[in-house]
């Protein structure tokens, strides 16, 4: 039978969908890129915002109209079980048993009866892995799941449950396989990636171990909380040459007043001090971030504080999210909710600042020579990323998934234009 997967949301979902695809192919199912050709549609949903929930629901409703076998999993299904049951989903699971979909399909095909399977507790890390990442040049590896932070605005701890980590040796062996299969960059990902801990080993230990793998050129962390950048991590950032010059560190708000309302675990001073330590180690580092605008109690003055904070820190890029009221979270029950009009206006302002900051960061690198990992190739041009996450366009057809030394010459829209310095490839 033929199947197609629709993935919504974060890098963890992207990884899990890749693992689902690989598992089904091993069971002699055939993956197709065109949903119209599929017998089975699998939708890996997201629930981080109301918009993500609505998009997930829309995708499922669309799939049901196509008269396919519909499998729904992920955070939105975990958060909206009854709604998806009413939509007539054939196989409905949450954030467990994604590695069991082939068995669930077998059961469904035998009984022709809907399957609904959820768990109230997630006690251990689900054994799920990928041998080769076909959807990206960079290979994502999920090493952690769950979150215990309970930020007041966030639904994810309720749908992903408590922190749990992939076995240390299992993670190392998975990464060895991915590198053997041609991947030069590994992106370590999770819901709270920096909380990784297994067999007495933390994230810094895992990075140190995998950096010994021949053929692995780059190690990237998808996102890390500023509170998780402890002395062990700072030492790895300083000493390990394979750790890329880019870190995504969520700020969420640029004032202590809103950070406290959000139940974030740091003050603005603590955040800035840690950024200064990283820049002292790596002066050319790219630091990107997430910011939520319009959280309850965010006045115009507090929003302006966030603007000033972002300018002061000089992020390379800001991912802007208008606050989304998630039922049953503390922020949803707060008074002083911000109007949708103000959230939209503030999002526009912060997005414009993000574009300015990104261009400033890019311009600093004109005339520099950096290594670029090629990700997309056409007959006349190639596009890739530097270690510090600058998007580069080269007007030559190069080898995908290879690293080239490139001189960055000029800014053109969202790219820096590059010229080959050395035709040798890593």
What's the topology here?
Layout: E1 2-7, H1 11-26, E2 30-31, E3 40-45, H2 50-65, E4 69-74, H3 75-79, H4 81-86, E5 91-93, H5 101-111, E6 115-117, E7 139-142, E8 144-145, H6 156-160, E9 164-165, H7 168-180, E10 185-189, E11 197-198, E12 201-202, H8 203-210, E13 218-221, H9 231-239, E14 246-248, H10 256-261, H11 268-281, E15 286-293, H12 300-313, E16 317-322, H13 340-363, E17 369-377, E18 382-386, E19 391-394, E20 403-412, E21 415-422
Parallel strand pairs: 1-2, 1-3, 3-4, 4-5, 5-6, 7-10, 10-13, 14-15, 15-16, 19-21
Antiparallel strand pairs: 8-9, 11-12, 17-18, 17-20, 18-19, 20-21
Helix pairs in contact: 8-9
Overall description:
Helices cover 35% and strands 23% of the residues. The chain is α/β, with parallel strands linked by helices and 426 residues long. The protein folds into four domains: 2-117, 3-Layer(aba) Sandwich (Rossmann fold); 124-244, Transcription Regulator spoIIAA (2-Layer Sandwich), CATH 3.30.750; 247-364, Transcription Regulator spoIIAA; 369-422, OB fold (Dihydrolipoamide Acetyltransferase, E2P) (Beta Barrel), CATH 2.40.50. Strand 20 and strand 21 form a beta hairpin. Helix 8 packs parallel to helix 9. 44% of the residues are buried.
